């Protein structure tokens, strides 16, 4: 059976974490972190015949992916690998611990504001400033479609606002206008922000997975949004091929899929989370003091993303089921021990039995015949079978006195072996 016990206020360490098995993979750029974190979601959403279960959201996937209502996806700050390893070392096969903690998360939310400004070029121009490096990046899907991405990609010494992202798929055939000219008619707007969430992880001896969670609807204060300030993300340089792999199918055969918005929000949230994790986490190139400045109030510090949390742990361990058979077995143990003890005392001096024992054999053996057993004192083995003849000699009877006959044991004796 299984038995649950509760541990409180364990002060586990949480932050921008990845599973320990891939802690050293993708820590410089972040693309590998994005792929690894989103694979469980991509596998679950690959079949359009299996519709998203929006009625039971939030839905957890993998290590820290949480699909939320209102067309949002969260990537939770998770338990650090060393903390997870310390838990796993205490677990046996079949045992687990459920760790629950309040953490921060990077969330991407779809915004329908864009729908009101499809024909307003001036509204779009406020997001496109070529002199600051803010331009539409495109990649061809080689199926007469392409993907366009628009993010604030500049790095200036001011409290910049990078909590917006436009991502869209548009025709790019030889007879179609450039994506830059049609981007405002096809792009979807997403707002990445940091929120307060609660996550529940299941830790076994070999795995750690997000089992569930929820997030607050309102985002954290601006002081906690410094992830999107003064950072040159480099999405155009590093992430465009990955986005084409994630989203390419939605240009054609999956353009009406129920998974379109969940996949887009997950891709955007994963892109930001993985890049931030690569830039300012323990997995980045560091130690680089520029990542932990003391004089710039707009830059994030590593010390602000790793912290001890009073989490809540439910430990599940294997035990024996309580039943009447178990009680009977336990109650019989003392009785069985007494029986074995008495039996051992009774037969302590009786190697074979009370009437015919090794003492009886050795006392009557003819000494000259023992030469046949020379060399076998340690091994107890003979090179060939040896017969033992038991000779019975009747004593001369004395009137008024009766004595039992004597026996003589002859090893190697010839003839019929008499037995008693």
Please indicate the percent range of residues in DSSP E strands (runs of 2 or more): 25-35%
N-to-C order of helices and strands: EEHEEEEHEHEEEHEEHHHEEHHEE
**Gyration radius, to the nearest Å?**
40 Å
| Amount of helix | 10-25%
Overall 3D geometry?
elongated
pLDDT < 50 stretches: 285-290, 415-420
Summarize the main sheet: 11 strands, antiparallel
Q: Treating each run of at least 4 consecutive H or I residues as one helix, how many helices?
A: 9
Q: Report the span from N to C terminus.
A: 57 Å
The helix-and-strand class reads: alpha+beta
Question: How many strands?
Answer: 16
Number of separate structural domains? 2
* Chain-averaged pLDDT: 81
Give a summary of the structure in a few sentences.
This protein is of the alpha+beta class and 420 residues long. The chain contains nine helices and 16 strands.
């Amino acid at each position: 059976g299984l038995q649950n016990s509760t541990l409180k206020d364990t002060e586990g360490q949480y932050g921008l974490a990845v599973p320990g098995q891939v802690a050293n993979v993708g820590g410089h750029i972040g693309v590998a972190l994005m792929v690894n974190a989103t694979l469980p979601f991509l596998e679950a959403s690959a079949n359009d015949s299996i519709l998203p279960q929006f009625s039971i959201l939030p839905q957890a996937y993998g290590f820290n992916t949480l699909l939320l209502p209102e067309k949002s996806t969260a990537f939770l700050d998770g338990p650090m690998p060393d903390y997870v390893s310390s838990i796993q070392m205490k677990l046996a096969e079949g045992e687990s611990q459920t760790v629950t903690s309040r953490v921060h998360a990077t969330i991407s939310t779809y915004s329908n504001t864009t729908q009101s400004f499809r024909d307003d070029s001036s509204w779009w121009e406020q997001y496109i400033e070529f002199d600051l490096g803010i331009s539409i990046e495109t990649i061809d899907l080689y199926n007469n479609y392409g993907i366009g991405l628009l993010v604030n990609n500049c790095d200036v010494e001011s409290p910049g606002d990078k909590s917006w992202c436009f991502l869209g798929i548009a025709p790019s055939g030889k007879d179609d206008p450039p994506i830059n000219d049609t981007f405002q008619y096809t792009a979807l707007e997403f707002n990445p922000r940091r929120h307060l969430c609660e996550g529940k992880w299941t830790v076994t001896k070999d795995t750690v997975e997000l089992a569930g969670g929820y997030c607050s609807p309102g985002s954290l204060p601006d002081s906690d949004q410094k992830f999107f300030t003064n950072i040159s993300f480099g999405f155009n340089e590093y992430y465009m091929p990955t986005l084409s792999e994630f989203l390419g199918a939605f240009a054609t055969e999956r353009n009406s899929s129920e998974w379109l918005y969940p996949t887009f929000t997950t891709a955007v949230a994963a892109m930001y989370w993985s890049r931030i994790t690569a830039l300012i986490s323990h997995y980045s190139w560091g130690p680089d003091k520029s990542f932990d400045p003391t004089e710039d109030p707009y830059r994030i510090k590593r010390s602000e993303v790793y912290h001890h949390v009073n989490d809540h742990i439910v430990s599940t361990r294997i035990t024996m089921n309580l039943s009447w058979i178990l009680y009977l077995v336990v109650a019989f143990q003392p009785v069985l021990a007494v029986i074995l003890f008495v039996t051992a005392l009774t037969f302590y001096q009786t190697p074979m039995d009370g009437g015919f024992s090794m003492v009886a054999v050795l006392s009557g053996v003819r000494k000259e015949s023992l030469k046949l057993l020379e060399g076998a004192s340690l091994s107890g083995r003979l090179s060939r079978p040896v017969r033992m003849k038991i000779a019975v000699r009747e004593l001369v009877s004395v009137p008024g006195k009766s004595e039992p006959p004597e026996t003589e044991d002859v090893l190697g004796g010839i003839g019929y072996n008499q037995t008693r």
